[in-house]
Amino acid sequence: MLTIHSQNLARWVTSITLAILILSPLVQAEQPPAPTSKPTSAPTLSPRCAFPFQDNAVLQQKIPVPVWGTSLPGAKVTVTFIDQKKSADADEQGKWRVVLDPMTAKPLASVNEVPQGSTMRIVCEKNSDAVSIELKNLVVGEVWLCAGQSNMAGKLGRKQVSDFTGGPDEQIDYPALRQLASPERGGWVVCTPENAPQMKKVCFFFARRVQRDILVPVGIINAAVGGSNIHSWLNQKPFELGKNYINLIEPLAGYAIRGLVWYQGESNERDGRNYEPKLRSLITGWREAWQQPESSVKDGPHAKFSAYFVQLPGIGNSPLGNPAGGDGRAEIREAQRRTLELENTGMAITIDVGAPGEHPPNKYDTGERLGRLSLHHDYGLKDLVPSGPMYQSQRVDGNKVRVSFSNAQNGLMLAEKEGAKPPTPTPDAKLSWIAIQGRDGSWHWADARIDGSELIVSSKDVAEPVAVRYAWTTRPLGSLLYNKDGMPASPFSTNGYGDEAKTK
Fold first, then answer.
1. What pTM did the predictor assign?
2. What is the pLDDT of residues 84-97, one digit of tens each?
3. Of 184, 276, 283, 431, which has the fewest Cβ atoms less than 10 A away?
């Protein structure tokens, strides 16, 4: 037991009392002033909308449009937009959600037309009190979510405007083309000459191509993080919930969209074939999170919204003495190609726009090719060939292999590409980077002859061929295979990852 003598106790009490008297003015001076209002984190009657709902927003046409946010629990929330008026009560957490009926975009006379925007008014009422906010200059059109890593995150800048938009004197004035950049948590940016450099390169070229053909407002939501791997974007078991999904995608989930554009894989290059289940998980997981209904309009968005992705371009230099290939990005490109088995997917082939480094300067072709996919599949331009030739099947005929392709109905050709210029046909050249496998398992460089929409492959060193590989390497250069629409063929191996020969 602790014992304190009375004399010592008196001295101790006196000392403490003096200390309190001396320090009390200082302590009082350091205290913050008493709050005069509720903390900003506390629920208020004033409605707060989810992140995508801001001035200048684009709302997806031809599908029900959810609008949601927070207010006081139990408040009645009424959303008025154009000729619609929808109400809902905020729940116990203050969350509210209404769904607008499908709307149709007003056609543009040209891409330079200023669309007539409308105001969305949101009113919250409780206990005879009412507070309202207004979101101005909203338009109805087509909305695309563009996500990935640095090649999707890069801004257009002044140089890209000059190089790929018609020259330095072109005025990039597309008032019906708008961008919401999620990582910066900024607002919707209207594409004006002043704002154009802020636009994300791939997003801009994609959206501009789409808008030029369909002539309605287009909105792009960019959620890209440089250096991010695909794991950070996943939301499905057995994968761990990713931080980029939580921070950047979850706040968007449910915002009505036409589809997803995905450009990522550089950080997962070494995954090879193991990238395939992850990319499949990303697409199916995001579709599940969106809970988007099927449009009742024939040409409206799907419940399983369109998902288009970029097959990784070339990088570095390929070894010349290895006909078997398989180096660098060969397997991850095959993983991306196989993901096309999922419904409503498409792949932009970019094997011909690579560079020695990680960031190919030519994002023009990448965006244009993504745009062709959407124009063909989503907007009814069926005469527009959606992509380059895609391996379909092989048939062994003696010492030759006949390879068939989709997207080659107008024929095949050899060509070389320089920068963003259209490929130049090279009919007298030899197809580079084509190899054939014998029954003994060895690979040899091969000769290839074009026969309409097929490729006939052989080698004097192989009497009994079993498989063919093309551009199965990190960065093939020289004369490459294209369709006559000027789109490059995807790298392929007819035995898949190495053990799945498709012979008929």
1. 0.89
2. 999 999 999 999 99
3. 184
